[in-house]
Amino acid sequence: MNLGKVPETVLKRSVLNQIGHRREEILVGPAVGEDCSILEVGEDEVLVMSTDPITGTVKDIGTLAVNITANDIASNGAEVIGIMLTVLLPEGTQEFELKVMMKDIEAECKKLNIEVIGGHTEVTKAVLQPIVTVTGIGKMKKSEIIKTAGAKPGQEIVMTKWAGLEGTAIIAASKEEELKSKYSLSFIENAKQLMEYISVVPDSMVARAVGVTSMHDVTEGGIFGALWEIGAASKVGLEVDLRKILLKQETVEICEFFDLNPYMLISSGCMLMITDHANQLVERLNAEGIAAAVIGRIIQGNDRIIINEEERRFLEPPKSDELYKVM
């Protein structure tokens, strides 16, 4: 494809024709000549919006882009309605690559009941690899808004799935040849497949039903970074038992191979929840096939402490993600 806005025929064939899932709230959706989308909102409802740029290869970028934004909105307790896309492609990108990306995006949207409601697609010399920016829109009742800043002393901390989930999958896919020097192909494939657990939308639905006052999806900076952010946002302290944090063996092995800290590795797919009903929440999550554990509690003050048997140490503000050491 040539530089500039993609031709109308390509837009129709490889973008618009790949979008089929619809929602009744969307009154005006993506179409040639339409610059805006229109959403109908009911009484006592608010819109929740989030935006994230994802950079990478055509493979998996669409899947990642949809889920990262959907996870942000789900963390506020909202139902994701639609997404707006900005797709910037480097010169020389083939049309079939755009079509594959859009098919991946539509597949994730259909799975999560989200509609692609508009966007922009362009080939430009300004980028050397694809960039997909997703702006997500969700809705919820005003009275049911959940913020990261909702943690209170005496509550417990529940985590879902596993720390380092996303980072493990990314490293396994991008560093496969290096990993083959020590690990079997089946081990590496299992690590790659962790990407299938990247959505926290189902996690948030269970949490809303049981009752939580704070939710935070674990992204850059890993679970240590997310714990710090909950404490900082809520102006509270916390105590977390390191041994209770869930880890996959693939994450442990790959982090040892590259000398990484798994607790500071990007972890989309993992959610932190603050609740008065921790055991009930874990049971409900497990019943839905979602791994979960109570890992700590919220305390008075500002001390954010990690406990490992007899050792107690203070959390530090989030630093650069461990992923950047190998990517």
Keywords:
Phosphoribosyl-aminoimidazole Synthetase, Chain A, domain 2, 60s Ribosomal Protein L30, Chain: A, alpha+beta, 327 residues, 10 helices, 2 domains
Overall mean confidence score, pLDDT: 92
> What does the radius of gyration come to?
20 Å
Q: Which word captures the global form?
A: globular
**Order of H and E elements:** EHEEEHEHEEEHHHHEHEHEHEEE
Based on the coordinates given, report the CATH architecture of the largest domain. Answer: Alpha-Beta Complex
Number of strands: 14
Assigned CATH superfamily of the largest domain: PurM-like C-terminal domain
Task: Output the number of helix runs.
Answer: 10
N/C terminus separation: 28 Å
CATH class type of the largest domain: Alpha Beta
Oligomer: single chain
State the major sheet: 7 strands, mixed
Query: Fraction of residues in helices?
Result: 25-40%
**Beta-strand residue fraction:** 25-35%
Low-confidence stretches: none
